[in-house]
Amino acid sequence: MQHPRTSEPKQLPKAAEKWAILAAALLAVFYFATSVQIAAHRLFWFDEFFTVRIAQLPTWTMIWTALSHAADSLPPSYYMLVRAFGTLFGNSEVVARMPSTLAMVAGLLLTFDCARRLTDGLHGLIALSVLTCSFLPYYGYEARSYAIYFMFAALGLWVWTKTASDLRSAIFFGATLLLGVTMHYYAVMCLAPYALWELIRWKPWQRPSSKLIAGVVGVVVPAALLSPLILSFSRKFSSGFWNRPSFAELRAIFPQLFPDALLLLALIMVWIVLSATDDHDTVVKPMAASESIGWLFLCIPLAGFFLAELGTNAFFSRYFICALPGIAVAFSCLLWRNFGKDYRVALGIFILLAVWGVGKQMTVARNPQSVEATGIREFLGIESSLRAEGKRYMVFFPPLIFSEAQYYSSHPDDVILLLPPDFDQPADALSGPDPYLHQRLLLNLSQFYPMQFWRLYNLKAEAQEVALIEPSQGVLDALQKAGFQVQVRSAAPLKVVYLH
Q1: Is pTM, for the whole model, over 0.85?
Q2: Is 310 exposed, middle or buried (0-12, 13-18, 19+ CB in 10 A)?
């Protein structure tokens, strides 16, 4: 009986490998340049406001103090990194976002090289392009630590798949996860796919690999050292966190990680049908350990769900950005195993994903204001006319636009946040998400950075000089009950109300 011939996936010629490396470098330069372009023309938003305000506190020790008072939720190392960039290059939107931009590009190249070593250069490009079709590029021009967290996840996968389990590689792997936790507390979940892989393969007489032991140490040590800050934020906000875990949120995680995944997968399948050769002699190789670990990165959101249910209550897609490198590498390995002989399949998929990612990035680069969602530019456009009409105090009800206005206004001392009438209800007494979480965060930050907060009674003395920006209907009803006459100055693009 004649057995089918096992056909090994072909390796690209050396010249083709060099072209793949060049293409990866060009894509990295493109995403770096466009991210800088977007960062230079996009105003800071609420979360970034906290980053720059804490990073610019007078002393390094005040960063730790502010975080111990639950002024924000990220580890102090990140704010110190942003502070160092600001000290070296000046304080601006581009500089504050530069650590994220550099980290995103580094993570793209690490993922490319990881997949390239396991397959070939073309499939490495596919892994890189998968990342550019995820939500990752957005975090390359945001002054938060998510792109850095992603980079360390990619570096951890690179170390695990590249080196044998010896002492040197174990130290490198543990150090990588340690640095990841110092950028985002949820980086402890980077250990999940490796631990699960070791558990699947474990036998009673086997010791865990040195890499896994080092990884455990790498996540436990920084988590223990930073536990006072973690507990401080958790005590004040975990019970009422705005995005709590639920089955509906869990179902939405993967579409948020890859917003266009279903359409792209459909197009990829059509291309495979049209271009793949019909070779009955080909036997697909079994899945390698590296690919298996990559697919286990899909478990990270599940681990995060249980972690959130156990106590953090924080469950949002960006916390699981560390899942992206493993998924991208596993996908490229899957294609290589099944269609490694037919480079038309891989080339078409690479072109599809690369063009899709580049197109989306170019759309944002041409209109950076499209990722601004609060209406801050509309306020800056009318601020001078409001002051010309005798309105000195710009009183905001939405906390997000207040923080941006307070940063960009020509008169920041006259920008005020109006607290809701029922704001005094303690957060720990709430049975669901705290509707005023953002206001409470701003109050915590105000201990270290000057901000003004008013109640309804504060409006009485200065009513003639107040422009009330975007008040809720509840606030307007309370004002009318208090005897104020409300005059709508404009309803769009921002609602502005005068009081009499």
Answers
A1: yes
A2: exposed
